Every structure is written in structure tokens, then in C-alpha cells.
Amino acid sequence: MMIDIKEHAELSVLNHSCAHMMAQAVKRLYPNALFWVGPVVSEGFYYDIDLGDEVIKDDDLPKIEKEMKKIAKDGKRITRKEISKEEALEMFKDDLYKIDLISGLEDGTITCYQQGEFIDLCRGPHVETVKELKNFKLLKHSGAYWKGDSDNKVLQRIYGVCFPTAEELEEHLNLLEEAKKRDHKKLGRELDIFTMSEYAPGMPFFLPNGMIIRNQLENFWYEEHTKENYQFIKTPIMMSRELWEVSGHWDNYQENMYTTKVDDRDFAIKPMNCPGALLAYKAGLHSYKDLPLRVGELGQVHRHEASGALNGLFRVRTFTQDDAHIFMRPQQIEEEVMSLIQFIDRVYAIFGLTYRIELSTRPEKKYIGDLEIWEKSEAALAAACEHAGKTYKVNPGDGAFYGPKLDFHIKDSLGREWQCGTIQLDMNLPERFDLTYVESDGTKVRPVMLHRVIFGSIERFIGILIEHYAGHFPTWLAPQQVMVVPVHHEKHVEYAEKINALISANGYRSKLDARNEKLGYRIREAQLAKIPYQLVIGDGEQEQGTVTIRRAQSKESQTVTVEEFLAILSEEVKEKRL
RNA sequence: GCCGGAGUGGCUCAAUGGUAGAGCAAUUCACUCGUAACGAAUAGGUUGGGUGUUCGAUUCACCUCUCCGGCACCA
After folding, report:
1. Catalytic residue chosen out of the listed positions A162, A274, A385, A420
2. Which residue in A405, A460, A509, A530 is the catalytic one?
3. ipTM of the complex
4. Euclidean distance between the first and final Cα of chain A, in Å?
5. Which of A21, A135, A335, A475 could tie A169 with a disulfide, CB 3.0–4.6 Å?
6. Quick one: which H or E segment has residue A67?
7. Is A133 within 8 Å of A72 (Cβ atoms)?
8. For this structure, is A323 an active site residue?
9. Whole-number distance in Å between A288 CA and B63 C1'
């Protein structure tokens, strides 16, 4: 597993010092460079730099590395200096970035660190001398908006990583290389799971293998939700402008919506399922006795995401949300959310996925609803996490304008986190659509509503699974579960066909490879296709009514009766064994 | 959308200012085979698209599309 640099105190200091050394090297190569911040992050360090009109190109990284090696070899000590805020402002008076930083600091002493000719504002701590910074690598670079604001100037950001020894660095770089082999875009192509076309940017095409995985996930989803007392609906993919005006999307989300005009009337393809779900709710009268009402929909949405945001199956322009909207009485929130957290936890465990929860609270400026309700809702979400025994990180101000939410994040092979599950309270739509239910006293009351997904998007979830399993899907999900391989393509083909037919008749996905090729060749292909079970059939098996099993990723083989093999398959699939 | 990088047969990649070459895959033939590649032959590309420079562009320039790594975005 990839190391999280930020989580290791020593590596953190080392990487931070290395960021300074990189800045020093950049300053030598670009005398006009001005520096913004250079923090340590989980992948190492970066520094944001203003190079005036110059930009960093790929070829520049080796040059900077070379200069850094020189500095490290020179071996200057890193010394700490304390100065007053006034002195700091004077010292950096020609540097608008430093002035900006210093102005934001409290009055009192400010620390600087110096090595050779280079001095930088910094809280520290740092390593003793730059001699310790010999084993580093600059990994990538990009433009990055100053202060993360797209209205600001683009600074040059350079990422790197540093380790105490050359061996650790090399091992880390190897891990990065290995991670690339698990990339779902690469495996998705190799295993014929999905494809993309420039005629539909950001919109994946699922190939037959991908459809098997998808259908398995969807069937599983329906089964589990049926157990949890969900009902299911399917709403139209396109609805008229008036609906989106009621929901607020026409005013707030229009640039992300695909719209069309038919018979002089505006329509929009749904970017979310909720408005449709609310119309379905309004199709009838609801009693407090029916609550919580759990209504699920595997709904395909379209969003015109920024071109630069697109990324394989992780970020697409059309995807299927495993959505559900839950309508309930206010006092039911905490219990409902708690059981949802456990539901999500149970589902992720089946796939062997680990995750992290974030609680996003009320945005500072733009939000709707009472402050009191917000606070109660946030408390309910937090309490639900605690009662479910889950830790969470608070993201202050990161909630949607209509309510607080819990997000479930899962890492990809490169350690990047993607939001999958989410539980969001909504104080907006029930109001806009005037939802009601009949309370015990006969009055009409506004229900509390929450949106929730578990996979998040089936597309993204499949992307995550491809990387998580490195293409080796567990048997219950594997596009093809069994490959029957007769040793001789004529002598053993009849028995092999019988075996293949029997396995298929029992509901498993089996194929016969009776091509006129060497056994080793066909085994190799089955291994590369990551088929969980290869059954070799030769004279011995034919005579005794057995099959010889070879598992994917294994060199071992084992001979069992056909019945025994079916029992193995049955148990493995039924239990969704990993 | 922004910064950088990349687009060559299904896939992985090579090459050159003078109309592209390999490996894998495919097809055919031969081999008749016990656990990760037997061999041979054949076919397959208007080098993402457009414009310009040039006697000549896949190669140079510009525009555009798509993809990748980041940034921003992520109701």
C-alpha cells in the first residue's frame, strides 16, 4: 500500500524541508520566482510558485532536480531565525505573496528558515541540513490557482516526494508504477469492460463483460434494498422546464444541464433524480403510518461536467445513481441515518472496501432553512455516526445549501479519494414541492426528506472495484467464471462440452476453449483474462468423471468430481466470497 | 474551464520534410499438444480532424477535437 507521507511525522518534516530545497533550486533557475505555499500532502510535497510569464514544462523538472542535487551535495545547514512581524514585513516588502501571508499571521515572533542564500518564511520544523535531502523525486507539475480561487492568477505547482534512503524512494516509485497497472481505464480496456468514444465525451459504453458486472451489482442492490423495505420507482429521463423551475435547477444548475426544445417547449435531461421522485411521492396521499417511506431508483442522470474534470469511469457526464429518497417524521432522522450508515457499511464490507466518512455542515453564506433545524440535523447526523460506531471528519461549511450531509469516500489505486456513498438531508425540495403527509391528528405536515446513495454512481463504483480487485473480480461478479479447457481439442471435446453445458445449466458463466492450440497457450489466455476457474479436461478426467481446477493467479491445480466443483462454485457465489 | 503532456492498424510502441514499421491480437496453413506464448503465411493504417508553410507534411506552424496528470468544479 502507498504510504501517506503526511501521516508520518518524520517523513513529513523531511518532505517539508525538501519543498524548501526545491524552492531554492527554482529561485536559482528562475531569479524572478516568487513563492506562495509549500505544504506536505499525502503524496509528498508541493510548492506553488509565481514565475511571472514563465510556465513549468515537463523538461524543466529534471533541470530543477539537478540543481537540487547540487544544493543537497553542498550540504548547508538549515537554520532557524526569529523575527518580529514588523521585521518580516520589511524583509519581504517586495514580495506580495509573503506580505499576504505575514499579514494573515498574528502579531509576535515569526520564524524563518535559511539554508545558504535561500530564506523562507516557515513555522518549521526542518531537518538539520540539506544533506539529508538526497533521495527525492519531482513527480508532476501543474497550474494551480492562487488561494484555490479560479478568478486568481495561475501559479506553477510542482509536486515531489522525499525519503531518508534511496531504497525507500525506489520502493515508493515502484509502488506508483504498480498502481498504474491497476488503473481502471487500462484494465477496463484490456478486460473489455467498457469503452469511450470521442463522439460522446465522458459517456462510457458498457461492453458485454461490463454489463455482467453491472447487472450483478444492480441485482444485488435490488435484493438488499428489498430486505431493507425499500420500494422502487423509475422516473423519466427528461422533464419539462417548468419542473426544473419548481426544483430550482433551472436557475441554479442550468449550465450543467442538457436541454432541448420540443414543440416549442423547453425540456431538460435530469441531472438528478429527486424532482422525479418528488412527483412520484405526490402521486398519492401519505400517512404517518407509512413513514419512513423509502423509495429507490436506479436513475440515469446527465450532467455537463467541465471537460477537465472527466476521468475514466470516475468522473463522467452520464451515470446511474443508486438513488433513494426517504421521507420521514423529524423524530425519525437519527435512527434512519444510523441504520443507513450500517447498511452502507455492510455493503462496502461485502466488496472488501474500506472508506472514510465526512460530515459536511452548513455553508457560511448561502443556505436555506432555519439555523435551529440545521443544528439539529447536523447533530442528528453526528449522533448517528457515533451510535453506529463510526468515526468521521467534519468539513465545516461544505454542506449543500439545502442541508448537511455525510459522505463516504473510497480510495482508488493511486490513493485518490472518490465520494461514493452519501446521505444528505434536504430542507429545500419538500418545501418547493409542497410535500405533506397526514399526521395522527389529521393535519397535513411537511415530511423530512433525505437523499442517499450507496454505490454513488454505478459507473464510479465499477471503476473503484476494477482497481480494488486489480481486475480479478470475485467469482460472483466475474464476467466469465469458468473456462473449460480440453487438453486435446478433439479427443476430449465431447466430455468438455458436456461439463461446460452442465455448469452453464446450473447458472454459472462458463465457456469452452476447444481451440486447436496448445494447452499452455489456452491456460495463459484464461489467466490473462482473469477468469476465476480454469477446468482442464484430459484422459484422466474423462475416464473418472472429474475436472482439474486451476484458479486464477495460482499455479496449483486440484482434481475433483464435477459435483464437488459445482458445490465449490455454489458456495462461493452465494456467499459472494472475495 | 485553467496549466502541462499525449493522439500512428483492435492493443503496445517505432520511424522519417520524400505518401509508414515491429510485437501482440485477427485470418489461413502446418503441428495434435497435460497447465502462462510451437512455427509459417496473409490481411489490416487517407499517422484524431481542419487550415497554412512547402515542389512535397505523418513529421514544421496555427486552429480544433479527444484522452491523461494536476488545479478549479462536484446540487
Report:
1. A274
2. A405
3. 0.95
4. 19
5. A135
6. helix A60-74
7. yes
8. yes
9. 63
CA atoms of A97 and A152, how far apart (whole Å)? 13
Indicate the SS3 state at residue A406.
strand
What are the residues whose beta carbons fall under 8 Å from the beta carbon of A461, sequence distance 6 or more?
A217, A420, A455
SS3 A486: strand
Closest CA to A268 of A288, A287, A290, A242: A242
Which of the following is catalytic: A50, A60, A323, A513? A323
Q: In whole angstroms, what is the distance from residue A107 CA to residue A101 CA?
A: 12
Single-letter code of the amino acid located at A478: A
Q: What does the pLDDT look like over A459-475, one tens digit per residue?
A: 999 999 999 999 999 99
Whether A241 sits among the annotated catalytic residues: the reply is no
What residue type is assigned to position A475 of the chain?
T
Q: How far is the CA of A198 from the C1' of B61 (A)?
A: 25
Q: Where are the beta strands (DSSP E) in A384-447?
A: 392-395, 405-411, 417-426, 437-438, 444-445
Smallest CA–C1' separation from A537, nucleotide: B34
> Which residue's C-alpha cell is 500500500?
A1
Q: What is the pTM of this model?
A: 0.96
Residues A386, A475: Cα–Cα separation, whole Å: 35
Give nucleotides in strand B with any atom < 7 A to a protein C-beta: 1-5, 7, 11-12, 30-38, 65-75
Q: Which amino acid is at A254?
A: Q
User: A97-146: per-residue pLDDT in tens?
Assistant: 999 999 888 878 899 999 999 999 998 899 999 999 999 999 999 999 99
How far is C-alpha A19 from the chain's CA centre?
Answer: 28
